[in-house]
């Protein structure tokens, strides 16, 4: 009789704990809205609760979608993740006025977003180009940044960025993938067909991963607006940067800074090391056997490193 009661109690407890877990996950706050910023409307998504952490996506011209699934799963239970699509990217407007597709405008947009969200000092997590934008922001508004997280960031100069990037992509791409990319690019509806663009980018991103098959785990969120805006935004913003170099300006950043970089990244480790050298209160963490997307390739270490950094006083 006692054994039966114990077994029944155990089963009931297991069922109850499962229901509570499911109920807790279903209550995860997930709200979206648009915020007007100087001639454009930015799409903003707030997920989870706790200390705010603004997520800055790469590209330029991509959207927050490729970061959202994994970061929500890893961090949203303890932090309020604030995703946004940059001007003329994803669901945000602004592509009509190409004169505003500049790095200085993107910095200004981010500060208006900060004000609209009523956050005095930001925790910024920038990935790829998003890391470069985060650095430009922190240089312009050092007192508005609490903590800075640069996840496989673009280097702080053209010289440390593009020569290595282009060489590495060229060396890692297979001839078969090159041919497939060329075939997709030649299609008449290449820029307006989300399925073709999604296929193209998942092939293009294969060299960005140590295990190239993981490129299929990217949730790019591509629709017709995304496809048609991407090339315009990407070209205009990089053109606005020119042969940039902000290494000396990085000395103005006072906030604690985490630099996380994969040892198999398509962006140079030398670039990450130079950022660490210039930002006085910074720490570089190099992840072994990881490429450009550490939150997909090594989620456990990514999660622990980010959480330890954010908790540290």
Keywords:
single chain; about 325 residues; alpha/beta; Rossmann fold; 11 helices; about 45% helix; globular; disordered N terminus
Briefly say what this structure is.
By secondary structure, this protein is of the alpha/beta class. Helix content is 45%, strand content 16%.
Structural summary, described in words:
- With 313 residues, this protein is α/β, with parallel strands linked by helices.
- The chain has one domain (30-311): Rossmann fold (3-Layer(aba) Sandwich).
- It is built from 11 helices and 8 strands.
- The chain has an 8-stranded mixed sheet with strand order 1-2-4-3-5-6-7-8, sandwiched between helices.
- Strand 7 (257-262), helix 9 (269-278) and strand 8 form a beta-alpha-beta unit.
- The chain is globular and about 50 Å long.
- The model is unreliable at 1-26 (pLDDT under 50).
Topology:
Layout (H helix, E strand, L loop, with lengths): L1 H25 L3 E7 L4 E7 L3 E6 L11 H8 L3 E6 L18 H14 L5 E6 L1 H12 L4 E7 L6 H15 L2 H11 L8 H11 L19 H18 L15 E6 L6 H10 L3 E6 L6 H4 L1 H13 L2
Parallel strand pairs: 3-4, 3-5, 5-6, 6-7, 7-8
Antiparallel strand pairs: 1-2, 2-4
Classified in CATH, the superfamily is Alpha/Beta hydrolase fold, catalytic domain
Q: What sequence of helices (H) and strands (E) makes up the elements? A: HEEEHEHEHEHHHHEHEHH
Specify the oligomeric state.
single chain
CATH architecture: 3-Layer(aba) Sandwich
What is the rounded distance between the termini?
54 Å
CATH C-level name = Alpha Beta
Largest sheet: 8 strands, mixed
Number of helices: 11
Give the C-alpha Rg. 21 Å
Number of self-contained structural domains: 1
Mean pLDDT: 92
For the largest sheet, list the strands in their spatial order: 1-2-4-3-5-6-7-8
Shape: globular
Computed structural class: alpha/beta
Q: Within the CATH hierarchy, at the fold level, what is the topology?
A: Rossmann fold
Protein name: Proline iminopeptidase
Pfam family, one: Abhydrolase_1
GO biological process, one term: proteolysis
Domain AB hydrolase-1: 52-299
